[in-house]
Amino acid sequence: MVITMHEGCPKMEVAKVISALRDAGLEPRIISPDPRVVLGVVEEISQAEAKRLSRDIGGLPGVEEITNFEKSWKLASKSFREQPTTIDLGSVTVGGPEVLVVGGPCAVESRENFLETAALLDRAGAGALRGGAFKPRSSPYSFRGLGEEGLKIMAEARERTGLPIVTEVLSASEVELVARYADVLQIGTRNMQNFSLLEAVGDTDRPVLLKRGMMASIKELLLSAEYILARGNWQVMLCERGIRTFETETRNTLDLSAVPLLKQYTHLPVVVDPSHAAGKRELVPSLALAAVAAGADGILVEVHPRPEEALSDGRQSLEPSEFAAMMERLRKVASAVGRSVREAAA
């Protein structure tokens, strides 16, 4: 339910509407304070209760109009917040004019390896570092990360480069630990509908990168984001990382239509992960360019100094020189669509 007040109505009239809604057991949220106050009620209520509330609230002084949310993802919807949400990550604002490029290996394998990669990415113009300390793997016998030691290595890389770090958290019990080190908490494709985990990251003050489930619809992605937003954490980035289809030539199928669709539906920033979509490093740069052209606010790319030696996802990881070349091309595409990408170090 959306309650629009008359422009310039006294604060006392707004307070009476809020009080009436709270008396009904609801918690109104201010969608817009200016130039006219707009209130939102996102709790589920019956049709009979909605009609009664519309009648009672609509008769209060200062109320201009009462409408319903068009989508079930209320807080993520543009009808709740028309202006795009921006997320501050130090020197980069995600959702602003600059496209964030996040690079790094799939997994933190060793201190030397990650620090080497971080330095190369910093020089090439990356805006943030990625790496997995806890890795969900299809096989229980695969390398599954260094745990807290990996988090400490990433924190050291941040100290050396000044770049924020993005890493995945796998369970609600690990959120406090990961948030102690990471700048951005990533929710992976397998956990997109792990609702207890979504609520746990929603209780933190850390930005969240929410990846689309490999077999999830756009609506399901937005509803998962709603779990985080409903806990009071507005710093959510949506990530398209490819979905499973009948095609076998790529690891997944990158749904580029998701970028403009999400931009149409939601105020949240949209990030694209071409590495997991392609599964082949030679396809990653082209998909990254296409994502920026489609309006993505960020790109998440896997980079390894020696991909053939990588313990995880080496086939889809760019070499540092390939990453630097991709960045040069990204700057040209970003400029063509009125955006920018961080410049390489002189």
Q: How would you describe this protein?
A:
- With 346 residues, the chain is an alpha/beta fold.
- It has 2 domains: 2-67, Alpha-Beta Plaits (2-Layer Sandwich); 87-336, Alpha-Beta Barrel (TIM Barrel), CATH 3.20.20.
- Helices cover 35% and strands 16% of the residues.
- The protein has 11 helices and 14 strands.
- An 8-stranded parallel barrel has the order 7-8-9-10-11-12-13-14, surrounded by 7 helices.
- The termini are far apart.
- The mean pLDDT is 93.
Key attributes of the depicted protein:
single chain; 346 residues; alpha/beta; Alpha-Beta Plaits; TIM Barrel; 2 domains; eight-stranded parallel β-barrel; four-stranded antiparallel sheet; 14 strands; elongated
How is this structure best summarized?
With 346 residues, the protein is of the alpha/beta class. The protein has eleven helices and 14 strands.
Under the CATH scheme, the architecture of the largest domain is Alpha-Beta Barrel
Q: Specify the CATH class of the largest domain.
A: Alpha Beta
Relative helix content:
25-40%
Q: What would CATH call the homologous superfamily of the largest domain?
A: Aldolase class I
Radius of gyration (Å) = 22 Å
Total number of helices: 11
CATH topology of the largest domain: TIM Barrel
Strand content: 15-25%
Structural class: alpha/beta
Furnish the topology, listing elements before pairings:
Elements: E1 2-5, H1 11-23, E2 29-32, E3 38-40, H2 47-58, E4 63-67, E5 87-89, E6 92-94, E7 100-104, H3 111-124, E8 128-130, H4 148-161, E9 165-168, H5 175-181, E10 184-187, H6 195-202, E11 208-211, H7 218-230, E12 236-240, H8 258-265, E13 270-272, H9 274-278, H10 284-294, E14 298-302, H11 320-336
